[in-house]
Amino acid sequence: MHQDQIISQLIQEKIISISPDKPFTYASGMLSPIYTDLRLMVSYPDLRDMIASDLANLIAKEFPEAAIIGGVATAGIPHAALVAEKLHLPMIYVRPKPKDHGKGRQIEGRFTANDKIVLIDDLITTGGSVLNAVKATEKDGGNVIGVSSIFTYYLPDAKENFEKARVKYAPLLSYPELLKKENESGHITSEQYQTLKTWHEDPWAWK
Prior knowledge:
two-stranded antiparallel ribbon; transferase; 6-stranded mixed beta sheet; magnesium; orotate phosphoribosyltransferase activity; Orotate phosphoribosyltransferase; 10 strands; pyrimidine biosynthesis
């Protein structure tokens, strides 16, 4: 696994930006000391390949019975394609909503009720979008056995949402791991570390 190497490059290339002193504002209105733009990863072949290899190994370990890899549109699709290639498995992808023309499909690709599916997204914040993709796949007769992602904030809301949906979740990288790495490397001060830790414990209360 290339966890430390991946985290270092994500920071170095500003794919993940940490700014505890000048927070970012999310679309939801939440203030955050971290901004993640994982869509940029497709432009970095070595990083992209490391992530695909580690995701493939993770899925093989956590979901050995997986028969199909699914990508959650749009950011999860390229990574699902790479993982499916490495595992030599079929792939599907899930749209946010059904097409409004043609056959009106929301799920593209073929599967049966007996096929065990693992869905991949790039980033999990609360889990809402990927869990909607799980519901859409199951509504079409798919059997989703779990979800994986490149990165997760591991916020309390996400933990609760996955538990409520009874969906197993196995991320490659998480905010606590990122924070530990940055603290150990000396890239952030002890005061900034505490700020980042406090945000993670209760992000909506953070000012």
